[in-house]
Amino acid sequence: MGPGFLMSIAYLDPGNIESDLQSGAVAGFKLLWVLLLTTIVGLLLQRLAVRLGVVSGLHLAEVCHKQYPKIPRIILWLMVELAIIGSDMQEVIGSAIAINLLSVGRVPLWAGVLITIADTFVFLFLDKYGLRKLEAFFGFLITIMALTFGYEYVTVKPSQSQVLTGMFVPSCSGCGILQVVQAVGIVGANLSPHNIYLHSALVKSRQINRANKQEVREANKYFVIESCLALFIAFIINVFVISVFAEAFFGETNNQVVQVCKNSSFPRSDDLFPDDNLTLAVDIYKGGLMLGCYFGPAALYIWAVGILAAGQSSTMTGTYSGQFVMELPFALIPILTFTSLRPVMSDFANGIGWRVAGGILVVVICSINMYLVVSYVQGLGQMVLYVVAALISVAYLSFVFYLSWRCLIALGMSFLECGCLVSVSKVLLKEEATSSHQ
């Protein structure tokens, strides 16, 4: 136990929490099935990361360093570092917002950012006393998130029938472009590329006799079981957040929120919501204040504690994964490539089903990325940004094509090697049988 719970923090960072609350506010319970499906896909990707680290004894960054030429290695490294920076920005700001809420506005956001940066490095020193202690600390933070967001769930009392329907009936009747973008946002928030690098490195902390195939097979099995448990807990916490905002704030307008806050004894939200009948726009900060207005100050402060735990833990894991990526590292295509190669994975290489499913997933993820870019640029409506986005998209797709091409070549060579070995084995067996007969 341990690596899977550190990995699951990426599914609970402030970016995910904000995606959850926005999903609940704009689509009600209708997108819970997207969260469930995305969590399952995430589990399949983490399974590949586990197998690579357990079987090869190398994490993904190390395998990329060995297998790719220099220029693609550098491009990979830069792309993953940018992903970590973008993710860390959300996490640090999320922690700063939580500190601001807990201090009743006395600690400004810039000071909260500095506090978060400082205590992140302090907590990471736990690693010097053993990874197990760091894993236990992360388990404590996940427990805090489960208790705080669970409290909000119990307080708001969402409709259980609507929760189950939204989770297991894949439909979105009456959904418009806003809900579609939110569904895409759920996918993007949960599938973090740096998390694959992190998980493939964390499993190396356990001693495994890789010369013993039964021991390797057993390690793979128990790491996947642990990942299932960790992601199930993360999924439940995300369901708590979506359901709370779906029950309390779906269909609400700014005017309705303003009226409730004016009538409450909670004075801190007067200037945040315009007094109009437009659909409510919410984020982590506004969400906390709304909970305070509707359900009392306790709901606000408990929400802030949960956000602080989410921000602190995810900032630390982001920084931690950055250490492995710096040894060198896009994650999906490399992990699919290397876990399918027999020279790397031996008898534990992916079968044809995993290869086909992975290829489909690559296409889906790239399509989602391009859709998000187009939607964002259209929203800004500036021609210069259209040109910049087009150039970046061409470069992005070109590099994806390069990685995919190398993946196909590597898989083809692996297939030919396997075919040749089978043919040679048949010849040797035939000769042995003939010799034995003579």
Give a short synopsis of this structure:
The chain has 438 residues and is mostly helical. The protein is built from 18 helices and no strands.
How would you describe what is shown here?
The protein is mostly helical and 438 residues long. The chain has one domain (3-349): Up-down Bundle (Amino acid/polyamine transporter I), CATH 1.20.1740. It is 79% helix and 0% strand. The protein is built from 18 helices and no strands. It is globular and about 70 Å long. The mean pLDDT is 81.
Topology diagram in text:
Layout: H1 3-8, H2 14-27, H3 32-56, H4 60-67, H5 70-102, H6 109-124, H7 131-156, H8 160-168, H9 177-190, H10 193-202, H11 213-249, H12 254-263, H13 284-295, H14 297-326, H15 332-338, H16 342-345, H17 352-380, H18 383-437
Helix pairs in contact: 2-9, 2-11, 3-8, 3-9, 3-10, 3-11, 3-15, 5-6, 5-13, 5-14, 6-14, 7-11, 7-14, 9-17, 10-14, 13-14, 15-18, 17-18
